[in-house]
Amino acid sequence: MAEKILEMRNVTKRFGKLVANRSVNFDLERGEVHALLGENGAGKTTLMNCLYGIYNPEEGEILLHGKPLKLSNPKDAIAHNIGMVHQHFMLVPPLTVLQNIVLGQECRITPMNLSRARAQVEELCEKYHFQLELDTKVADLSVGAQQRVELVKALYRGADILILDEPTAVLTPPEVEGLFEILQQFVSMGKSIIIISHKLWEVKRISNRVTVLRSGEAVSTVMTKDVEEADLAAMMVGKRVSLEYEKTPVTTAQNILELKDVCAKGAHLASSLKHVSMHIREGEVLGIAGVDGNGQLELSEVIMGLLPTQSGSVYYRGEEITKMPTRKRIEQGFAHIPEERMTQGLVMNFSASENMIINCYDRPPFTKNHLFNSRQVKENGKKLVEEYDVRPRDPDALARSFSGGNQQKIIIAREFAQDPRLVVAVQPTRGLDIGASDFVHQKLLEQKEKGAGVLLISADLDEVLAVSDRVLVINEGEIMGEFVPGEIDYTEIGLMMGGTKRTNSKAGETA
Amino acid sequence: MICMNFGGTQVRVERKKRTESPLFQKVLGIGIALLLVILVTGIIIALSGKSPIAAFQCMIKGAFGTKNSVAETLIKAVPLLLSGLGLTICYRTGLTSVGSEGQIIMGGLMATIVGVNLGGLPAPVVIPMAMIAGILGGGIWAGIAGLLKAKLGVSEVINTIMLNYVATYLVAYLVDGPIQEAAGHYPQSDLLGKNAWLPIILPGTRMHLGVILAAVSVVLVYMLLWKLPLGYQMRAVGNNPIAAKTNGINVARNMVLAMFLSGAFAGLAGSVEIMGIHHRLMNGFSSSYGFDSMAVALLGGLHPVGVTIAAIFFGALRTGANTMQRTLQVPVSLVNVIQGLVILFVLMQALLSRFTIRIIQRNAKEKGAKQHA
Fold first, then answer.
1. Are strands A82-85 and B355-361 parallel, antiparallel or unpaired?
2. What is the ipTM of this complex?
3. B65-331 domain in CATH 1.10.3470?
4. Is pLDDT larger for residue A292 or for residue A453?
5. All domains of chain A in start order, with CATH
6. Which of A148, A329, B88, B274 can bridge B108 by disulfide, Cβ–Cβ 3.0-4.6 Å?
């Protein structure tokens, strides 16, 4: 029996009325990878934030090496050799790798003062076979490398227990493999790792034990080797759900939207669109798969008229619309579910009903004879809140007071109430739980049934495969290949996502 | 979340999730703020050796005691109200304009030019003409700042402040040169033609037509913000320009338009002040109405009705303080102190109402001493 180094007993954490963790028990043994599995909002991150001193649990206790531990901030946690790598990295981009690693530990981070620290960090890198250029600015590093900086930072602070919050969310498949090798190495050197995840395969692949959380409660803790992915999925969601939808085949060859050789400048070189050609047919869901930040956002913006093209042209139902302003496109039947709900999608200080007309406030019935009719706005809000099951059913409540899933429902209600002909959905289920995701998928498919073209851009490959009729893979702003879900296996998709163009013989058939 | 420990107790300050508090809570907050203002002002008056009660009585009498004092209060409230309404539009559109003062001055200048040169025309012709000139003067002056912001991203805070100086010194130059009075004694323009003077609507006082114009403007701004699609657009831009842009609303155009409208109301304030009170252009005719109107707009909660109340309150302060000085020798500058305190306390309550403050006794059950002040 391995040594128990950490134990959390009956930990309860509330946020107002919401119970984020209810009497959770969790323990960690020396030299193991313990996965914390659960849906979005199951309370995984909250639990770990309690362990890292960010939150104070209301009830329960934390024992480290059998002794009770009182943490009031992350500094205490670090002092007890607990390290955490957050989902969103806590790095300062203009500083160098070395400066970032020692930040907070050393008072002065000028190059001269860092010679001792440099030796230590170099030693660490050597011990764990990290390849890091210590004097490169973090801003110039890839996401994978930034993550390694976070890991070294935790090690430099002396972490024996390492908490990783969704570490693979931002990585390409090869980078994920690299990360797993590193983790295995840590474990073999006696460190213990807690990995937060909602991906089954990754839990199965890397962990020794799994604790499954569901709505804030620990459902069970099992040895990974004793369970199958399907069992874990069942524990996680409570009931078995299969990500499978009935899809009517696309019958028409009528293009609703066509892009010809489009180039557009993006936020980075990697996300700039490079000679993208594609089309969406009526009644078709076209999925765009790819790792985040490879031009998906730019693609949606070009289609919505929010980002100007450098060259190439865009056609909507046969007519060129390359330079058409966004508003006009919306009036002609474009619907947009933007990536950032809170900044792009909603005006947080507007009520739900006011948000539900931002795409049509200047048209009847909301504006008649040049007068804005706030009663119609409320009526409309009331109707849509009912129809789309927005909770709470209060169209007058401010958008900011709704949960993420319900905020998304407000956006979807607004966009779909206009009977769009083309739907551009960007990461429509990000941050939503399975129930809400399923709702979004159903609504997207409803639009397809009605004959609209749907562009589904998502970093969640399972989602793209489940909902789409046809999938394009994008990498660094280029289309790497096209396939029909089920036609090829994950390895091949992974390769395309990682930048290998599809060159098989079937390309001729689908084109 | 901020936690502070004092011995055994812990004070916790947490951000509230909802920012829109119910109306009664807002009114209560402002009420408490005003009470504190009266308290602190009273202390200051007492320190100077005068009776605070007598001083306040004097002020209230001075502002509302007679027909004439009510009229004076109202005509002082008019420019504050008009300019404050303009600022309401542009603050709601998310633009922090500090330029009302300059826009009032430009409005006054344009109205003067029309009123002096076309003063022979009949009143129903020249009065609207002078006002439109004033509206355009203020509107274009603000529009410059709006364009710079929308097209080049220049901070509207900086460029409206700078345009204030340009307007002030432009008028200082003009009244000392090109448009100086024919007599040539003082740095001021000629009198406007009598036909360009605003008619008095309450005989025996200085209360002029501007009071009615201001009242109409309250309704207009309310209509604009809540009864026109343009108002919805502007509020959307003001609350979240990114969401507005994503949904195809032209953010730049709305910014320029909001600045123009805000300047137009300030310009109207300037022309009303010239045509109704001074009847000629001179340095400092605006007596910082533009700056005070910022406080008026904020104190009024950026709502036309609230702004009206705040403008009358500030107008009353100005009138009442004069009486107070005459009777009790309490200096008028006390009004600046009061105005400063009003802004301070009102902003403080607005900020505090976003947080929940809890005092927790250690080792005891949560004693939820909740405070909203």
1. unpaired
2. 0.80
3. yes
4. A453
5. 4-237 (3.40.50.300), 255-333+420-510 (3.40.50.300), 350-418 (no CATH)
6. B274
